[in-house]
Structure formats: structure tokens, C-alpha cells
Automatic annotation (TrEMBL):
PPR repeats: 64-98, 138-172, 270-300, 374-408, 476-506, 548-582
GO molecular function, one term: RNA binding
UniProt KW keywords: Repeat
Organism: Musa troglodytarum (fe'i banana)
InterPro entries: E_motif, PPR_At4g14850-like_plant, PPR_rpt, TPR-like_helical_dom_sf
Classification lineage: Eukaryota, Viridiplantae, Streptophyta, Embryophyta, Tracheophyta
Name of the protein described by the UniProt record: PPR repeat
Top-rank lineage group of the source organism: Eukaryota
Entry keyword Amino-acid biosynthesis: no
Biological processes per GO annotation: RNA modification
Amino acid sequence: MFSPISPRLRLLRFASPARPPLAEPFPPRSRPTAYEANARLRHLIKAGRLRDARLVFDGMLHRDEVSWTVIISGYVRASDPHEALSLFSLMRSVDPSLDPDPFVLSVTLKACASGPALGFHGRCLHAYTLRSGRATGSVFVGTALLDMYSKIGAHDSALRLFDEMPSRNAVSWTSAVAALVRAGRCRDAVRCFAEMWASAMPCDGHTYATVLKACADAHLLDRGREIHAHVAKLGLEASSFVANTLAALYTKCGVLQPGLVLLNRMRSRDVIAWTTIIVAYVQTGREEEAIRAFVRMQADPSDAVSPNDYTFAALISASVGLAQLTLGEQLHASVIRRGCVAASSVSNALVTLYARAGHLAAAYTIFQHTMQKDIVSWTAIISGCCRERDVEQAFSLFGEMRRAAWPPPNEYTFSSLLGLCAWAAALEVGRQLHARAVVAGVDNDVMVTSGLIALYSKSGSLEEAARAFEGRNSEEVVSWTAMIKGYAEHGRSAEAIELFDRMKSTAGMRPDGVAFIGVLTACCHAGLVDRGVRYFLSMRTEHGVEPGREHYGCVVDLLGRAGRVKEAEKVIEEMPRSEVDGVVWASLMRACVAKGDEEGGRRAAAMVKELEPGGAGAYVVLANVYAGQGRWQEAAAERKKMREEGVRKEAGWSSVDVGREGTGVFVAGDRSHRRMEDVCEMLELIDFAARMGGDDTETECEAAAEACVLWSM
């Protein structure tokens, strides 16, 4: 059997804390026998009276292996591994004649499995068992070692132990399956279960629950159904932990109803069952039903169950889905009162709640007070900063995460930061993130790939976007959509349309609503009116995609640019009332103005004012139309209405990143720039070059624009 460390290392001695004098547990004349004392110890431990059990133990004149095993197991059950290990060391020091048997070693190894911090002590115990020969033939010690290594994260060591075990029982096999599940190797866990089944080893409810969890995590619904059939034949469906795991399997695989049926069949639901029901509703987007299930859980006297931290984490996630900050704050107060706010699952859900609501200060405070920050904690706060466009704070946290060294950033972290870089057009920073994603091995993840395509597209580097797209490892709609949008937004309509048609002909690819927005935008830029209309009409009939506000807006803009104003207005009239907004009417208004349809433009402007009373667009367009026709009184009247109603036109602005020189910001109408005259002169040169034309016009304009920016810094 493999040795984790040199057996010469001595087992770490645990110093027992100083104790006050203990009361005499037995009168001097009525000392019980060792058998009676051990029986009383077991009774007290089972009743949860650990303090009284310790009084009895300390008062025993003669303690055997059973006495030590029982009291150590009591502290393990009470989640006090340090005291359990102290007692094991005390046993070896106060009575050297006692040779720890496999049972006391197994119990002590359970204490070492309580967390990674105790892994060193577990390795010391492993070395001791090798030196004493206890690990060679005992299936109990071997199984306890396997379980210990698995729980402290040393999965390879655990599986090597299993392979070298001379004899195995059902617990050994179940521990091996559980080790593979913890390591994320769920398919291997199912194969291990198949080997166990083929060896005719009897399986109990714990074995089935473990392999069902593997099926749930890997979304192996068909395999899970086969195992469910075996469970049903054996009559184990009524077992709470098996029923809960089956419900989780169906929920994670998107089949909610069978899981709910199983949970509803349970005579008495425990907190795990209720939490599974609530999580099932949250994961399937039925947040209101999740809240109602929680109310039933609290109100039913026959099923009165106290919620745990996972229950509250699911409920807080439901409040996020419902965008109900007040409900989330009430749940926050409840977890504080119950003392489970420090649980990582709860704190992570709270960070997401406040970050999504825009309360970054509250989210950051909770994040700072989270004792054990895992990858979900870091990603939740960084994603919140990215959503609020707080570039400085997001990258400050990312740097802090990297300095902490653990956990390393994952695909969700990189995806959020790449989206922020795309919004800020921070191309160089995005390239650095790309390099770090390659080092982390997540650059081929679909979310990272789509984030890279969006970054390079929005930063004007379509060649790099195309390389990221062509280098993807899997066919996912989101990557295709990002590339189509990138081409469309940069006027590369032919490439966008060609890519959309390729997507339709690729096996397993179905265009979604975002892909149709991209191709309709491309048709709009290219003036392909009839083709764009055909794409729009095929959404519902051929692809089952319901047109939304953005799709109708693209078609109205497409028809309006072609001068087909009446058809555009008809499209608006056919839109669902809930989808009509000021944007589509503004598109129609501009089309009417361009065609000279004053009546249609005035009618569209009235609708824009009604739907967007605070917008200045309709007033400005009408005023410009009247001014262009020399109707100065009407133009002045529109301007006067703007002032009377307090409507102001927001000034346009742009920014240019010049590397180490910083960022230059330009605001329309602003003359306060320190080199305003130089900027204007350079803009005149750019305009002159554009008007002169020629083969090198684009290159000359780019060079002039770069010089303009450098001069202005």
C-alpha cells in the first residue's frame, strides 16, 4: 500500500486543554464494570449528552479500546475533530499498553476528514497505520483512509488506496464512487458503480444516492433513470436521502415533474426534501412557487422543519430572480437572526442580490465579511462590479483574487471581465485577459470564446474576433451570434449574412433571437429589404422564435430607410401593444422626415412624445424639419415646448484610449479642451482627406485621426 509520508514521522501530539476538577460521576462503593460504563457512554453519546459522557469517561478507573473509541466517536459526531484527535494522542500517552485497534483508528481518521486543515494529521495517522501494520488487512482502516483523502481534496491518493485495497466491502466501493464525484469525475463514478454491480457487491441506499448524484451533476438522465428503476425494485424510493437525490437528478436535467412527484410521496419531508423542492423551482425559473413552498414549509405543523443555510441561499436566489430587493433584505434579516449569515452559500447569494440591485457597497461589505471565499464569492462580486460598469473596482478585485492564489479564476470570472472590457473598448486589457485565460486553460470555454469575440468586435479588431470564432472547440449558438453581431455592427453585412446562413445549415444549430437581430441589422446596413423581411417572417414559422421589440425595430428601420413608410407603419400597428415603444416610432419619424412625409412624421412624433415624455428626439427632429423648410415660427414653437416641459437634449460624447497617454474624452459643444484649436485644425484635415477620396483615403484618415488624438492629450 502506498505511503503518503515517511513512517518515521511521529504522530503529532495534541495537548488537551486544562480542565476544572470534575465531579465524581459514580459513588466510590458503586463503581460499574467496564462493560456497564461503556454501555452508559454509548447511551449518553446517542442522546447527544456529550458533556455528561465526558464526565463518565473521565471518572472511569479502567478504560479499554471500546471506551476510547466511543468517546472519540462522540466528539467526531459533535463536529469537534480537534478534541477527538487530542483524545487519541492522550490514549497513546496515558496507557502505552493499549494498541489502537482498527475501530478506533477508523473513528480518528473520520476526525481528520473534517477539513483540509487536518489533512497533515491524517497523513501522520496513515504513516502510523503502515508502521503498525494496521492498514494492511483491515477493510475498516482502508475505507476510512480512502474517505479521509477524498474529503481533504487528495482525490488521486484516495483512488490509489482503493486500487491497492486487498479486500473491499460495500462501504469501500461507495467511498470510491463518492471520491470520484467529489473530484468532478462523474462519468468515472458511474463506471465505478457499474464495476461494483458487476462484482455482485450488494448496494445500499447510500450507494444509490451517491451514484445518482453523479448522474445529476453530469446530466446523465438516461443512466439515472436506469438506476431509478433498480431503486424502485428494491423499495428504496421511500428513503429520504434517495428520494432527495432522485429529485435533484430530475431537476438538474430539466425534468421537474417526476422529482416533485417523488418528494410529494414522502410521508414526512425533512429540510433536505423541502430545500430540494425550493431549489427545483428556482432553477426552472418558477421563483414565486419557490417562495410559496417555503411558506408551506413554515406553516404546516405536521411538517414543521427549520430551514438551513442552503434553504435560505435558494430563497435569496429566488428574490434575485424576482428582482425583489425588499424580500431579499427580509431574508437577510432572517439569516442574521438565525446565525447562518456566515455560511458561504448564504453570503454568496447575498452578494449576488445586492450586486444585481446596484448596491455595490452592501455587496462588497458582505463579501469582505465572508470567512471562506470560494470561486462563487469572488465571481459574484466581480460580476456585480462589471454589471455596474465599475472598471476600477472590478480589476482591483481581480488583482486581489490573483494575489490570494486560491481559488483561481474560472470561465465565469473571465467572461464577466471580458464583457466589461468590451463595453469600455479596453482592447489591450482584454488581450491581457485573453492571455491569462489561455494560461488558466479556459480560453476554449463557450462563455470565454463569446466574450473574446464581443471584445475584439466592439474594439474594431474583427480579424482577431474571427480567429477566436474559428478556434472554438464546440458548436454553441452564443459564439455564432456574437460573431454575426460583430460583422453586422461594423457594416460587414455580406459576412454577417453568409455566417447566419452557415449557422442555419450546421447540424444542431438553431438561430436564436439575438442571431436574428444581427442578421436583420446586416440587411438594414446593406439595404437588402426583401431579404430582411424574409428573415423576419421566417422567425416564427421556420425557427419557432417569437419576434421581440428589437426585431420589429430592425424591420421598421429597414423599411423606413428604403422609403417604404406605409409598410413600416403597418408593421408597428401589427406589433403587440406591450412591445411598442418610442424607439420604433422614432425610426418611423426619421423615415417620414427623410421622405418628406410631414403628416406621417408629425403623427410619429406625437407617439414618441407620448411614449417617451422625457425624450428630446421628437422635438429636435420636428424643429429641424420646420427650420429646413423656412418655417421658423413652428421651429421656435417646438424649442419653446422643450423648455416649458423641462426636456433637455443630452450632449453626445466619445472617448479614445491612447495607451499610456490616458483616455481623451470629447463632448459635443465643449470648447474647454486645452488644445481645442489643434483638434479643430486636424478635424478639418480629416474632413478634407475624406472629401478628396482616392485609394489611400481610409489609411490617411486613420493616420490623421491618430495624430489628432495624440495632439489633444
